[in-house]
Amino acid sequence: MDPTTTEILVLGAGPGGYTAAFYAADKGKKVTLVEQNPRLGGVCMNVGCIPSKALLHATAILREGKESSHRGIDFGPARVEVEKLRNWKESIVEKLGQGIKSLAQHRQVEVVHGRGHFEDSRTLRVETTAGQKFIRYEKAIIAAGSKPAMPHAFDLGNKRVMTSTEALDLPDVPQDLLIVGGGYIGMELGTVYAALGSNVVVLEALPSILTGVDADLVRPVSRVAQKAFKEIRLNTKVLKMATAGKQIKVTTEVNKQQRDELYDRVLVSVGRVPNLADLGLENTKVTKDDKGFIQCNAQLQTEDPNIYAVGDATGGTLLAHRAFRQGKIAVETILGDASAFENVVIPAVVFTDPEVAWCGLTETEAEQKSIEVQVAKFPWGASGRALTFDRPDGLTKLVIEPETERILGVGIVGVGAGELIGEGVLAVEMGATVRDLADSVHPHPTLSETLMEAAESFYGTATHTLSRRSS
Amino acid sequence: MDVKLPQLAEGVESGTVVSILVAEGQEVKKDQPFMELETQKAVGSIPAPSAGVVTKVHVKQGMEVSVGQVLISIDAAPAASTGGATAPPRASKPAAQPATAQPQPSSSATTTSAGATDYRYESKSGVAPPAPPSIRKIAADLGIDLTRVKGSEAGGRINLGDLRDYVQRLQQIALQRAPGAEQPSGQAHQTPASSESVDFSKWGPVHREKMSPLRRTVSRRMVESWTTIPKINQFADADISNLLALRKKNAPGYEKQGVHLTLTAFLLVVLGRALKKHPRANSSLDESTMEIVYKNYCHIGVAVDTEGGLIVPILRDVDRKNLAQLSQELHAITERTRQRKISIEELQGGTFTISNQGSIGGSHFTPIIYAPQVAILGVGQGQPKPVAIDGKIGVRTILPLCLAYDHRVLDGADAVRFLKDVISGLENFSEADLQLK
């Protein structure tokens, strides 16, 4: 069969892949986009960011409704129709998927559905429903993404043991739900199921949930979750799982004591692995690191001169917005621009209740690397706006280089932290100083004022707190 | 900390590693020499800026290194604390300070170039220099390393103006250096940029030899002098018959003291006096301030022919030393120069230069002034010549002299008066000055 030819082939239509494909097409390249799923958009759009945020938003009303009664507004008991909720979430995903498809069409990006397999450094074979197809390309960008890790010991072949993919499909509302892994995925989905009425137990092997995040930013999340969830059990290992009728028997170990418990469903959220099996990478010069992710340089070039890689497949922090940027940099490199994924501030948001968001240097990282920093904090208890939300459990802080007063990092916990961190990203990227932030007028009454007041507290002059210059 | 090659002296921007005196894992003391470097002027050792353990040697013997290049890394932590996790990587201190560099009046061009290329952004936090993404993009497109650009805004933030200034300065430096000036790397432009490489092998077999760092310095300094100094050559002859007779008479006495009397030593005595009487010939021009710098010292350079090429060591305070002292010092410094054991400091700070070709048989020649000095005396070989003395022809030993001088500082009349005093000093050298104490 004669191969079809293209200039740029993109493997995977998630955030990294479709961004690269669209950008290359905008720059006048002939682009082919290969995606194994019928719907474009990748994990983020189909079984990640978007559906999880839809469910978090929908169920937040349940939580807030309950909180509302002490303010004199009572809704009475809520009634949840799971199927309707699932359909609404599905409609959003479908709409966005259609949007990506039409954007591809308008850019004349050729979309091929099927599994891709590299035959050599210049050829990809695609198994489509209409048979094999060979595509010969000049440059390829691998954006194959990642999937939830499922340790062999937990893989019972029982649908009651879920990954985030199944949990987001909302099969039912289990009475007793065990979440293995207190990272951001486990905590976000725990928030959803707890609001829907499940008794949620989170098991975490390490001494804290949201490991790696600054302790003062995690604390408010822990406090809310301890109330909303049945239990958060730290330093706990899952030894084994077994099917027990319509339930799962889970054997755990805390302080060397074993314990057997029954759960209606188990969500395993212990990390993610790259989708690189069976891609035929052995037929190319592409190399992988010891964790199985593709190795590439700051220009996102792999060891194979014709192949680039972006997004989750390259490891690091697995975030859609990182893939967006990498997709563009890979294309710019192919076009011959001096572009590199270096010194780029990648913010992170955890959509728990309350949200946690940070960007740039964190206090934890500064401590690990022995970087001397000063930290300026503003507790939300002093924010009028936070009180009107009835949510004073927030904190805004700046991580500062002492000599230059340059803002190296921003960390926020509190309702809407994810929307606030954008200003922090701008400050860090622009090389802003604390004075720049303190002297920029922020609208009152908003939560954005907490950034300005944190800056003012650095100078000991925050209006709404009796702050001193913290160190 | 990374130890970088410091600016060793004005104009010395690279060198060749002669030997490495430390090994990885070895402990060094502060100021302990860790490598020897042959620069364009001499072989010298580089001292460690601080005590610690050498964690890495980045250079190899025979490698050419330039100012700012990392030579070795030193872990300042005490050796006892090794094992397991090493001490956290603290921010490195600023690069090693210039070790020798003696202040010299330099042209404004070199001052600017130092300012433009020496700056390095150093963050204790180890982060990239503060600059908005738009500026970073422009810098990347232009291939500019932002750590070399000094930001003018709060916290050292770099704006477009800073980047533009930096690029303009680079261009200025490039233009200033282009005519034959040496590149920092010392590799690219062996020949003046204006001349194209000629394929001489078209006309017969050739072989090429790399210019040594010393040869390149001579080349650069000569072009600099030739192209920047409006010079006049003033010819003269001195009758040294009496002087030679005096030398002959006194030489045995000196030899007993282990002192060999040379004509150059006599010239040093005479010049020391003449320069004191004519301070302008001992001065320099500071173009940046339009001032003439008079020096209350008289350090005379003596051109020495070595296997590697011309080197000019300096004899200090010539006007305050007698013939015996000068003869001894001259002999010692000449020997050390021939053996390339001279330090960079001993090549700096000259106020006047003698180039004496007499021993190898030269006649009149026009020497090139050794900037920033303003004059140089070229000396040929004394030869018996027929001359008129009181109306009769006699045979006398005549020494050919040529004073080359910078007409911006010295006028013809100044030069002639100075030269006449030099001649008179040689012709009427007093026996009293030959007395050994």
What key phrases describe this protein's structure?
heterodimer, A: 471 residues, alpha/beta, FAD/NAD(P)-binding domain, Enolase-like, domain 1, 3 domains, five-stranded parallel β-sheet, 13 helices, globular, B: 437 residues, alpha+beta, OB fold (Dihydrolipoamide Acetyltransferase, E2P), Dihydrolipoamide Transferase, Chloramphenicol Acetyltransferase, seven-stranded mixed β-sheet, four-stranded antiparallel β-sheet, 8 helices, 19 strands
**Whole-Å distance between the termini of chain A?**
69 Å
Give the low-confidence spans of chain B: 79-115, 181-194
State which percent range the strand residues of chain A make up.
25-35%
Low-confidence stretches of chain A: none
Number of strands of chain B: 19
Let me know the largest β-sheet of chain B. 7 strands, mixed
Oligomer: heterodimer
Helical content of chain B (DSSP H or I, runs of 4+): 25-40%
- Mean pLDDT across the residues of chain B is 81
Number of domains of chain B: 3
> How would you classify the helix and strand content of chain B by structural class?
alpha+beta
Radius of gyration of chain B: 26 Å
What is the tally of beta strands of chain A?
Answer: 22
- Structural domain count of chain A: 3
Class of the largest domain in chain B in CATH? Alpha Beta
Pair of chains with the largest interface and how many residues each contributes = A-B, 26 and 24 residues
Instruction: Tell me the structural class of chain A.
Output: alpha/beta
Strand content of chain B: 15-25%
Number of helices of chain B: 8
